[in-house]
Automatic annotation (TrEMBL):
The lineage of its organism: Eukaryota, Sar, Alveolata, Ciliophora, Intramacronucleata. Pfam families: Methyltransf_23. The keyword Cell membrane does not apply. It comes from Paramecium tetraurelia. This is tRNA N(3)-methylcytidine methyltransferase. It comes from the Eukaryota.
Amino acid sequence: MDLIQKKQKIEDSDGEEIIQEGEVDENFEQRVQKLLYETDNGLNLYNKPVMPLIYYEFNEDIKQQAEQVINQDTTILPQDKYEKYEKEASKIWDKFYRHHQNNFFKDRHYLEREIPELNHFKESHQKDETKLYVICEMGCGVGNALFPLRKNYTFFKKVYGFDFSKRAIDVLKANELYDETVFQACVCDLVLDPLPDFERPDLGTLIFVLSAISPENHLMVVRKIFEWMKPGSVLYFRDYGQYDFGQINLSKKKNRKLKNNFYVKHDGVRVYYFSNEEVTSLFTTAGFKQLDVKAHYRYIENRKTKVKMYRVWVQGRYLKE
């Protein structure tokens, strides 16, 4: 990974999820070969001090240490358990959102620096104010991407979202920022349902969604998205990467493995961990042109629990020509 040399602002939200189960592992302190503190002085959008953005350098030694832990977890849950979690997935996510409401995932302000199309849209709109765009978040949850993007980029004339959790959509629609003249959200299961009859977006997002779907359905889902999107549109993808803190933690706990790189958490939520190569193959096989793919290796410390996390996220941008 090319370590970032440019200073950037970072907020608490960049950690994506609040880790509620985890343990401090001193052995993995040696995974950090180099930490870069990159920050600007100032306040974020919520008038809180800007937090440091810290990367670590991932190398072969770190990979071998992680693989040793992961490969020791050889117990795979029985097929009936696998089928149970598959069948009850929507109920599990409804329960998740009923408990957490909109307090679990943080708003995804980092998207502004990760999606260059946003700047392209902005420049085009500045030249011609009649030039407006459409965005759709697939697996939108409670709107942690849609609301910040619409707030900062008013050139989105329509903001669409769908999720297979009815509870998540209810929470999203109850948000005071939900303006029915701009936003439209509905319940839709990416695996089982046809995609909504929305206006086709210029920009689509698939953020920490595919990992919650059984791996045997990944290609089918991405193909469905490809067929649904219009020529010239871009899909932004971000999800959990192999050797992430979460995967190592689940491997240590045992009896959480459903398939290779696919696990179930304590609350029944499932999670898959992707490699860059796998993501590339998945999206290009479905028909997309890959614009870029890369892994983020981030160090984060939960200030409340003191849990030290070495996160791995994979992201890519994909064009439908």
